[in-house]
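About this split. The held-out portion is used to measure sequence recovery: a designer receives only the structure tokens and must propose an amino acid at every position. Recovery is the fraction of positions where the proposal matches the reference. Here is one held-out target exactly as it appears in the evaluation file.
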């Protein structure tokens, strides 16, 4: 298994709502992260702010731009959708697909599959979110995750999976759950399970080298333990990615890991 850098993705969601604040946050992160040895940092701001944020981080080799979603068609009569070619032109390298927020609003497995297929062919690194709504002791949640993966990657050629990242996003995790002593072990177990599913679909060489990042709830108290786990290759961070001190603390922990 090849050595990988940890991947720390900041998903800003629909925050902030002003260009001034967005550029200010990006500028502070840019000024604080000049170089990383073991970490790739991906910022996913609202699409309206890409052009100005790109100007801020363009010279920083440690920071990449990501989008929170994209459409599967490159252009056409699709009112309100985001063209992947337009994102390419803005310097976007990564795209989040299948986030629980979008699934909750009606995004189907078929739509997710179309998006992943299209974006991988264009050359994006796709962060494909999967995760169970609730956990059961019988293991049904593992079958649920496996189905999400197989449906999302249906018909996609193996050669494109080198640009795939899976974000394990268990929706049931809450502030109470992540204080459980077995919390990080559960994340690791599921991450390794996902790698096995990918190996079944694409072979061991590809499957076991797809990065698996954790995208559920966590705190600064257990981020170190999560990133130490064998199966975890990084984090998908939401609200803490807008808090400079917390986000930098997460990146610092990633830099400390082997």
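Reference sequence for scoring:
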């Amino acid at each position: 298994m090849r050595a990988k850098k940890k991947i720390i993705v900041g998903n800003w969601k629909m925050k902030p709502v002003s260009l001034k604040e967005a550029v200010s946050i990006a500028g502070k992160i840019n000024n604080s992260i000049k170089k990383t040895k073991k970490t790739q940092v991906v910022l996913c701001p609202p699409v309206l702010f890409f052009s100005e944020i790109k100007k801020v981080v363009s010279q920083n080799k440690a920071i990449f731009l990501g989008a929170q979603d994209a459409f599967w068609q490159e252009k056409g009569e699709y009112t309100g959708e985001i063209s992947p070619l337009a994102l390419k032109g803005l310097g976007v390298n990564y795209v989040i697909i299948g986030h629980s927020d979008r699934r909750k609003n009606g995004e189907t497995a078929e739509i997710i599959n179309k998006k992943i297929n299209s974006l991988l062919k264009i050359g994006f690194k796709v962060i494909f979110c999967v995760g169970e709504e609730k956990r059961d002791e019988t293991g049904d949640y593992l079958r649920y995750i496996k189905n999400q993966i197989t449906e999302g990657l249906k018909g996609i050629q193996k050669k494109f999976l080198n640009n795939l990242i899976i974000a394990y996003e268990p929706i049931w995790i809450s502030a109470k759950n992540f204080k459980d002593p077995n919390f990080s072990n559960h994340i690791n177990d599921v991450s390794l399970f996902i790698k096995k599913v990918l190996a079944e679909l694409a072979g061991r060489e590809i499957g076991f080298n797809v990065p698996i990042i954790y995208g559920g709830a966590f705190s600064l108290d257990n981020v170190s333990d999560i990133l130490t786990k064998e199966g975890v290759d990084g984090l998908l961070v939401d609200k803490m990615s807008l808090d400079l001190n917390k986000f930098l603390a997460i990146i610092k922990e990633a830099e400390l890991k082997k």
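Annotator remark: The first helix runs from residue 19 to 32.
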